[in-house]
Amino acid sequence: MQRRLNPRDAKRMMQRMGMNMAAVDDVEEVIIRTPIKEIVITEPEVAIVQVQGQKIFQVAGGNINERVPQPKASASPAASISEEDVQLVAGQTGKSAEAARKALMECEGDLAKAILLLQS
Which of 20, 85, 100, 113 could form a disulfide with 50 if both were Cys (CB 3.0 to 4.6 A apart)? Predict the structure, then answer.
């Protein structure tokens, strides 16, 4: 004969063993991202179980879909270089703004490297 454990007794027993469990409310989706695909679980039930200082996330139920992630659009290096940086490098080196911008792009936005590049 199998005896069922009521939820309150189960919770007490888990606490005695150093375990704590809490539900995460209103979860809409869980995404597991790998280098080649994404696993999307919509409307899951999620619980956090803490055991000996570690958190374990338990995901149950929901609708499971797999998809290939879209490549992220990379920002052009020129877009990330501010006009203030260009003016600073140009002012420090006595070079034109165009030369300063080119040096900043070569040095991936590193001000010090760009100034040293233009001074050499």
Answer: 20
Report d(CA 90, CA 116) in Å as an integer: 12
**Does 82 lie in the same domain as 60?**
no
Question: CA 118, CA 107: separation in Å to the nearest integer?
Answer: 11
Same structural domain, 87 and 110? yes
Q: Is residue 99 part of a domain?
A: yes
Specify whether the CB–CB gap between 86 and 102 falls below 8 A: no
Q: Contact 104/85 with Cβ under 8 angstroms?
A: yes
pLDDT tens, 91-119? 999 999 999 999 999 988 889 999 999 98
Residue ranges making up the domain that contains 103:
77-119
**pLDDT confidence band for 71 (50 / 70 / 90):** low
Please state the rounded mean pLDDT for residues 62-75: 76
Statement to judge: residues 22 and 49 lie in one domain: yes
